[in-house]
Amino acid sequence: MVYAYILENVLKAYEVDNKSIFKLVKECELPETSIYIDKMGDATRPELQELQSIVADGDTVLVRSLLDLADKPDDLISLLSHFGVRNIEVVSIVEPYYKYGDSFLYIKNAFRFYADFSEKKRRLGIERAKAEGRMGRKSDKDIVSKVKRLKNAGFSIQEIISLCGISRSTYYRMIKM
Questions:
Q1: Is 88 left (phi over 0), alpha (psi -120 to 50) or beta?
Q2: What is the DSSP letter of 47?
Q3: Would you say residue 42 has pLDDT above 90?
Q4: Does the predicted TM-score (pTM) go above 0.70?
Q5: Which of the following CATH numbers is that of domain 2-110: 3.30.365.10, 3.30.710.10, 3.40.50.1390, 1.20.120.450?
Q6: Strands (E), 45-139
């Protein structure tokens, strides 16, 4: 059985041209009951969930792009794996080279590599910011001096916290400055 999954473009910020998938659906003469359409931006994707529940071994799912199947790389990998293990062929117009046996591990490793690279870049950025003293929230010098004046005047910690609108941990951090 052949099915089509289409992500309807209702968002103005992201341009998607579905003409090619609709043309393919027409050429394959798919009945309306074999076409599943979700709205872009709907994270629940009810039509995709229903499609997943009815496809069987040997079926084919037509899509405009593999990216239409998920919003996050992990979700895409999980879905492609689910289809591949069940011998469900995914035919993509934008990615005509995709075949589960040939391409899945490459795509999975590419996403993992990109995620690892992004994490490395994020951590290096944090270390650089710490080294340059740009990490964390900048304290307001007026509040620091007010906290110290109130402390020297004999106010209790709770009174200073209430008067300055700060937390207890912020109070202790400011006293050390």
A1: beta
A2: H
A3: no
A4: no
A5: 3.40.50.1390
A6: 60-63, 89-92
